[in-house]
Amino acid sequence: MKIGYREKILILTSALASVVSWMFRWNWRGHKAPTFNGNLDDVVRDHIEYLKVPFHQRNFKNLLDNDPEAAKGEAVLRYFLASQQLDPEPGETEERGGLDFRCQPKNAVNQPIKGEEFWVEVTSLRPDVVERHSGWPNTIEEGAGAFAIITEQLRRKTGSKIEQIRKHDQNCLLAITSTHVGSSALLSRVGTQMFLSAGEEFFQDWREISAILLVSVSCDCCQILGVLNPEADYPFNIGYLGDVPFLRAKDWPPSSTGDVKSEWVVGYPPPLQNDYLFFPPITS
Length: 284
Known about the structure:
The chain is α/β, with parallel strands linked by helices. About 35% of the residues lie in helices and about 15% in strands. It has one domain (about 25-135, about 150-265).
């Protein structure tokens, strides 16, 4: 089959658009999958080096001694936010306290976008708490078993942070991490959808939180899913975390039956790739 002049132009234009899109996504914004260069211990050590102020280093080392799982979660979030070219800075001060990280989005030429900074507070669910409420032992075992979704524990953890977040009159995200061996299943898409089904009153009470990140942490990578607060005072721009799938309410407020229709959205969706999908030959 012969390819005409117009078809050649369309092919070249499509190829150029793909290259420009790739440059913007990977070179300019620097997005990459949240896998660790090494292992989780390396991420923790890197985080200690990143905390240059003695006050921040001292606080993190105390957290690492007293609650190592929470410390790992904080280090992982900083690593991930840095991978998204958000220049996370410690938000806590010795005099006033504060949230864990202040993030500064940038435009395509790597310049800060004024007025678009946002804050991230990190908290964690202890493995023993997850084990007790899910019925899933924090050990790797052969065979299958039943477990319970930990939606109520996620809601309580959110509630425990609201007073701290209310002090910031800007976009604020809450990240809830877990290192439990089953966290990738407990904080999966199903668990996220259950969290969104909390209802209108739940999100109205915590409207200062723009979005919630559910983060499963393993030895060499993390899984991150987000929930957008439909009642947020400051709606979050998901393009700033373009690789994270966010769940949002499709119709709000919920119906009289309490059902919440939802949909998944992502700032920079990757193209579908299938290495085993072969195209049939074109016959003229």
